[in-house]
Design a protein that fits this description.
10 helices, 23% strand, 36% helix, 336 residues, binds NADP nicotinamide-adenine-dinucleotide phosphate, Gfo/Idh/MocA family oxidoreductase, Gfo/Idh/MocA-like_OxRdtase_N, Dihydrodipicolinate Reductase, domain 2, NAD(P)-bd_dom_sf, alpha/beta
Amino acid sequence: MLKLGVIGTNWITDQFILAAEATGEFHLTSIYSRKISTAQAFGSKYLTPIEYFDDLDRFFNEGKFDVVYIASPNSLHYEQSVQAIKAGKHVIVEKPACSNPTEMKHLVKLLRQNSEIFYFEAARHIHSKNFALIKQKLKDLKVKQGANLTYKKYSSRYAEFLAGAEPNIFSLDFSGGALQDLGVYLVYDALSWFGFPGEVNYYPVKLRSGIDGSGTAILSYEDFEVVLNIGKTANSYLPGEIYGEKETLLLDNAAELKKVELVDGAGNVTILSVEPEEQNPMIAEAKAFAKLLRDPGSLENKQIQQDWLALAVEVNQVLYELRKSAQIVFKADREF
Ligand SMILES: NC(=O)c1ccc[n+]([C@@H]2O[C@H](COP(=O)([O-])OP(=O)(O)OC[C@H]3O[C@@H](n4cnc5c(N)ncnc54)[C@H](OP(=O)(O)O)[C@@H]3O)[C@@H](O)[C@H]2O)c1
């Protein structure tokens, strides 16, 4: 069993712990919070013995865990991952892994020097059955004409923002915004399904803090475009569409991928796959990480981890280029 330490005491950490424990491969041993009382309140629902920390150095250096799940505000992911790697812990870090390519470059260098450590960006949907299915279906399409992908979810923090506060996810200081938070899923889609684009442009709607509350990104390829519609200030129920010549692949949602359908040239719809509604959406990634972590010495596992890392590096680069095209500058961009 892998001993799991966690950073971040919001609902997403509960969801990951439940997914990780459901695989039968992880058990929670260690919790860090800025306040010990928060860590204890968070951990009290779990029935295993847990060690609690409110000091990050002690968490990493004295914590008896093998792998850390990091779900802190985006701007802290890099520093906390560096600390974890230096302390000999495997890392599962929530998306987006880093704020910019400078951080990513340093991280990759550190990983090269610590080749026994596995580092995963938790882009949950790329480990789902439907993600692989779409990749396979795209290989079968003779002609590809791009896609129109949408992920717009009204943020539970938006009301706070409208009332005058600046929650982390709407802050340049914390590397927030719609692109980093939700666009990351769609950039993963585009790069995995169509490869690296030739040119990218982002047209955001900026909010009071300078952050993008929503926006449209256009990824240009030689023969087509992939359009990404993202936002945290409204809900969209538009499906994603991937275009062949006459056929269209329909995705219920390009980041959640619960249902994939194929519409032929005559308009006939075939359901290709439907995920069960009640399933914890993080189980597939938890299983994928556990499979590799079970044998980190295996060359095959190392290669898979390297491939995922290479994709994370490309996603990070595209997110940065998109931000640059829209003059969105994070505090983290000025810190190196
Ligand atoms: N995969 C998914 O489906 C999914 C869904 C939601 C979020 N996420 C990711 O999870 C991460 C956390 O998101 P979130 O919405 O939970 O963020 P958040 O509420 O802003 O912060 C998460 C945790 O970090 C700590 N924290 C908050 N502000 C901090 C600060 N100023 N300095 C240091 N620590 C601070 C808090 O824990 P303590 O008070 O215990 O220190 C908090 O519970 C993000 O990277 C997000 O992208 C992923």
